[in-house]
Amino acid sequence: MKNTFTYKTTLLLALISYSLFSYSQDIYQSKRVSWLEKAETNKPTLIVTEKKPVQQVNMVKDADAFQGWKAVRSAPIQDLYKESFKAKKTAIIDFGEHITGTFSFSVGILQNTPDAPLRFKLTFGEVPAEIMTPFDPFPEGSLSRAWLQDEIMTVMTLPATVTIPRRLSFRYVKIELLAHSSYDFNISDMKCDAVTSAATTPAPLLSTTPQIFKDIDRVGLNTLKECMQTVYEDGPKRDQRLWLGDLYLEALANYQSFKQNNLTKRCMYLLAALSQPEGWLHGTVFEVPEPHPQSGQKLLDYSFLFTSSLKDYLEATNDRETAEDLWPVAKKQIDIVKKYVQENGLMDFEQANREWWIFFDWKDNFHREVPLQGISIFALRETYELAKLLNREKEVAELPALIKKMTKAAQKNYYNPKTGFYTGLLNDQVSYASQVWMVLGGVPSKEQAQKALKALPTTENACYPGGPYMYHYYVQALINSDLPEEARNVVENYWGGMLKKGADTFWEVYDPNDEFRSPYNFYPMNSYCHAWSCTPVYFIRKYPEIFQK
């Protein structure tokens, strides 16, 4: 088995080098096969649990419900199994919880001899509006229509058990009869073989924990569990692959809950093994049909998070062997900073923005100059901290001086003492992200950080976060700035806001001011169970003095 895998990985790497890259030197060439083998060794076994629906529902328009629709119980599930589906024609089924797995149902004969196939349309939804919003005509500017979870199934022979081939992520199923003949039939035995690699039970919270944080923690754990497959997926409905930024946040939540650290180890080895020949990390990689990167996916701010991920892993596991093995990859990422930092200590945002995707947040009209400076300093600090843990400070001896230079440049060029905010030279936008990444980079004093963060919510036209990913860093900045009540309120109001709107897993995008907001020009394409939304689990459990008392 090992020899077979080694052959496959060697062949794969040869194909990657030949077909995707044209470089003469691959700095990790001697390590890639070993890293892929270690990733495979740490691949978890998926746990399969049979889940059955709990009720039939009707979807009812409700202006107060999330995206205008709510599910209302209409009948027991057993009633559906007993009656003619030929007469009923349509049913909406509620499994009572968000699940990820393989869906199947049986079709039985009630009367007469089947003389023609049956044809059904099945639509799967994570939230009620996903079931009720027509997918066609499909809008331009979105992701692939194929991500949407609807299937046409033709049943040729009866009776039969029908299994949808693709893995699905859903709570609700709408079944519509499209074509039939003279015979009568019923459907029954609907189930989903749900899958996750989360095999342990997290420790309970303190009995003093307020109910709202117990509920947020429960839904956060559900979110993380659904995204823990054979890698940390970003979303089990859509994308279904490993992204570096999601890995960083999922691993933080996992250390405080399921503690399945081999999954973190696997993901880091995959990212390292599939990095570009010159050493940069791809923002995302795939597992199947063989491990491979999404070519050209140069995501700058995600690359900076690898070092933090490795440092956190070392601190959580004391697995020094893995940290030493992957140290060259972590160290290499800071060369990105060195490439773009100018003589004045500021990052050359315009050049970096031409050559990389600089993300930070799903937010329109958001300027990223200041956050880039902040995360660059953050990456240097994290790299130096990891070096100290590994007794390798001499290898990065230049970092303290560079950190000092870049910090001084940020304070001189971006800080406005009149407003107390950090704003860019290319754009004077006041954004949450700018203040947050200055704080996380260690640029302002505690007093300056508190002043800026406290003023944001009441500042007119401040560019607020577009989704849970940026809200995570906002909460961390508040905690780092000794603003525990503010951090507590953000978790309660933002993630608690999703709870009040019916979330049983937390969403990829949530704007309290616009429930239909989507980066993809079509809100059913949004992922309503998304990895980067799970981090209240981390905050609630990491800081019990803030959230559990």
What would your notes on this structure say?
By secondary structure, the chain is of the alpha+beta class. Among the domains are: 48-196, Jelly Rolls; 300-358 and 364-464, Glycosyltransferase (Alpha/alpha barrel), CATH 1.50.10.10. The protein has helices at residues 2-19, 32-41, 77-82, 85-88, 128-132, 211-227, 244-255, 261-273, 300-303, 305-317, 320-340, 349-355, 369-389, 399-414, 432-440, 446-455, 468-480, 484-500, 536-542, 544-547; strands at residues 47-51, 55-61, 69-75, 90-111, 118-125, 150-155, 160-163, 168-179, 184-196, 242-243, 284-286, 292-293, 415-416, 421-422. Helix 13 runs antiparallel to helix 14. The chain starts with a helix and ends with a helix. Mean pLDDT is 95; it is low at 17-22.
Could you give a short account of the major beta sheet?
9 strands, antiparallel
Looking at the structure, the CATH topology of the domain at 300-358 and 364-464 is Glycosyltransferase
Name the beta content range.
Answer: 15-25%
Shape: globular
Low-confidence regions: 17-22
Which class of secondary structure composition applies to the elements?
alpha+beta
The helix tally amounts to 20
CATH architecture of the domain at 300-358 and 364-464: Alpha/alpha barrel
Rg computed from alpha carbons, rounded to a whole number of angstroms? 25 Å
The CATH class designation of the domain at 300-358 and 364-464 is Mainly Alpha
What's the N-to-C terminus distance? 51 Å
The overall strand count is: 14
Helix content percent band: 40-55%
Mean pLDDT: 95
